[in-house]
Amino acid sequence: MLAYTLLILLAGGLQALAAHVQVTWDIGYLNISRDGLSTWQAIGANGQLPIPPIYVTQGDILELTAINHLDKPVTLHTHGLFQRNSSYYDGAGMVTECGIPPGSQFTYIIETRNQSGTHWVHSHYGPEAIDGLRAALVIRDLDPKLLDEYDEDVLLTLEDWGQEPSNAMLERMKTTSLGRHPNYPSVLINGINANFSQPIRFLPGRRYRLRVVSMSFTYWFKVRLPGHAMQVIEADGIYSQTSAVDGLDMCPGQRYSVIITARESLEFNYALNVTFHSNFLARKPGLNPRYHHVPIVYRKDAPVKTFPLIEDHEVKWADEYAMEPQDKQMLLEPVDQHIVLNVKAPNRNTSISAHAYGDYAYAPVPVPPLYTALTTGDMALSPSVYAPQLNAIILKHNHIVELELRNSFAPIMHTYHSHGHAFQVVETGPVNSNSSIPVKRFTGRQPMRRDTITLAAGQYVRVRIKADNPGVWYQHCHQEQHNLSGMAFTFIEAPDVMQQTLRVPQEMLEFCRILGHPTQGNSAGHFGSDMTGIDLPLAINGTANSITGT
Q: Which of 43, 187, 300, 422 is close enough to 194 for a disulfide, judged by CB 3.0 to 4.6 Å?
C-alpha cells in the first residue's frame, strides 16, 4: 500500500494548505498478466501494477522515495516538472545521476510551488518504464477561477503493453527485419485491458475535467466523445486559453485536460472512443489501428447513442499551433542561438539498430554530464569535456534558443520531449521545399508551450526556449525504442551558473561510488579533453547539423 503522509503546515493563519506529501515506491519484479494475453516479469511498486496515481496540491513538496529491490539501478523522472534549481532530481539515468543501486533507497524532493497540471512519473534508467514502472502525477490547482470551471476531476491514463519483457523485445529489435520495432502491444486504459474499460459516470449538466495522460512508449492515441463538446484548457501542464475541439491526437508522453459538459438528458449513454495507432508498425486489422471505448454512463439501463462514422480529416483535433497560453507569454525574441538537428537512422537492411538527433547515437558515459558540468570549472563551457556520444549543446544563461528538428526519414513519425523546459511551439512544415505539405506557424497572439510534440515524417518542427534553468537536461524521442537506441542529445545549460547554484546531495555521489562511476572530471573521469577509456561513439550518417550564435 502506498504510504501517503500529509504533514500540514499552516502559514500565517491562511486557510490554504502547504504540505509535505510522502509517497513510497517499494520497487520490485512481478510476474503478471496485465492484458490477459501474456504473463511475464514486469516491474511494479508495493507489489502491484498498475501503480496508483499520485495526487498533490500546488505548493506541496512531494517526497518520493524509491526502494530498489531490482537487480539493477533505478531512477524516477517526474515527466513535465522543470526541477528548477534541482537538476540532480530530474531522474535521467547517467545524465543527472548514476541511479539508485540495488538494495538502496533514495528520496526525490519535488517542489510544486510554480507548477500544476497533469504529469506522470516513470523510470528513466534503461527500459524499466516499458516494464511497468510508471504512474500519473496530478498537481491540483489553487486558482479559484480555474476550479470554478468544472465540478469533477476525471483521470484517464492510456498505455501500451508489450507481449514480452523489454529486454527480449530490444534484443529482437536488433535481429529482425520488422523495422526493429516491437510486436503489436496491447492497450491499457486506466491500467487494465482496454477491452474491459471501466465506465465513467456522468450526471446531467455537470462539468467534468478529463485529464488524459499518454503513458505510452510506442502508440499515438486519438480520443473523442461524440455528442459532447470538448474545451481544451491544458497541454502538458501549461494552461491555455479555452478552445473548442472535437478530439485529441496525442503522441507518447503528452497530456491534455479538457472540460466536458454532460448532457441534460438521461435518455442515452455514450462511448468515449480511443483509437491507438502507429505509422511505423504495419497496418493490421484489429492490431494497428486498435479501436476501444470507455462507457460514459448516464443511466444504467440506457441504450448507447450511435453516431455516423466520420473521417479523421473532418475532425477538429486539438492543435498546439492554434492554441494560446493562458499566461500570454509573448514569442521569445530576439534569438541568440539557432540549432538545427536532423533525424538520422540506420539503413533498414543493416544490423545496427540506432537512431540519432545528433551526429552520434547517444550513449551513456562513465561520468554523468551534470557532474562534468559541475566539476570542470571554466572548461565546462567547452564541448571538449563532454564525450561526442552525449551530443552536448552548451547554452548560455538567459539566451533565447531556437531549435529546429528535421525528420526527413520517411515514413516514420518521431516525438521530441524536453526535460527542464516547456518550449514555445513556433512552426512546422515540410523538410523538402517541393512538398505539398503546408507550413503551419502559430496562429494566435502568443505561441503555446508544451514539453512533448510529434515530429511528423518528412517535416520539421521549430521551437524556442529561454535558457533560464541552469542544469543538464536530457532531450529525446519518447518512443522508448528510439530513445534507447540513441535518439537523444543534452542541453548543458549555463554551466558557469549551475556551479554556483547547484549542490548535488552527498547520497547521490555515494551511489555513483557504489556503482563504480567517477563523479568528477570530463566524461571519462579525467581532466581536460583526455577521453581515454571511453568507447568510440557510433556515428550515424545523414544531413549535417548546425549550431549558430553563442
A: 187
With CA atoms as reference, report the closest residue to 319 among 232, 396, 415, 219. Answer: 232
Pairwise CA distance, residues 257 & 213, whole Å: 9
Q: What is the pLDDT of residue 359?
A: 83
Q: What is the mean pLDDT of residues 293-314?
A: 94
Q: Please, which pLDDT band fits residue 542 given cuts at 50, 70 and 90?
A: low
Residues 59-73, buried b or exposed e (16+ Cβ, 10 A)?
bbbbbbebbbebeeb
Alpha-carbon distance 456 to 180, whole Å?
19
Return d(Cα 454, Cα 460) in angstroms, integer: 10
Question: What are the grid coordinates assigned to 492, written together?
Answer: 548543458
Does residue 134 carry a pLDDT above 70? yes
- Map grid coordinates 497541454 to a residue: 235
Chain segment 191-202, per-residue pLDDT in tens: 999 999 999 999
Contact indicator for 189, 210 with CB cutoff of 8 Å = no
Please report how many Cα atoms fall inside a 13 Å half-sphere around the Cα of residue 227, on the Cβ side: 18
Q: Which secondary structure element, helix H or strand E, spans residue 15, and what is its range?
A: none
d(CA 251, CA 249): 7
Per-residue pLDDT of 23-63, as tens digits, reads 999 999 999 999 888 899 999 999 999 999 999 999 999 99
For residue 159, give the nearest of 89, 216, 115, 114 by alpha carbon.
216
- The residue behind cell 506522470 is 120
Reported residue count of the chain is 550
377: pLDDT strictly greater than 60: yes
64-123: per-residue pLDDT in tens? 999 999 999 999 999 999 999 999 999 999 999 999 999 999 999 999 999 999 999 999
CA angle 245, 247, 253 (to 5 degrees): 115
What is the residue-wise DSSP string for 229-275? -EEEEEETTEEEEEEEESEEEE-TT-EEEEEEEPPS--S-BEEEEEE
Contact status, residue 235 vs residue 255, Cβ threshold 8 Å: yes
As a whole number, mean pLDDT of residues 213-219 equals: 92
R_g of the chain, CA atoms, integer Å: 23
Instruction: Tell me the helices (H) and strands (E) count for the chain, helix number first.
Output: 6, 33
Task: Calculate mean pLDDT across residues 238-260.
Answer: 97
Write out the DSSP string of 26-65: EEEEEEE-SSSS--EEEEEETTBSSPPPEEEETT-EEEEE
Round to whole Å and give the CA distance between 315 and 275: 13
How far, in Å, are 84, 98, 232, 374, 493 from residue 88 at the CA level? Answer: 10, 10, 33, 11, 13
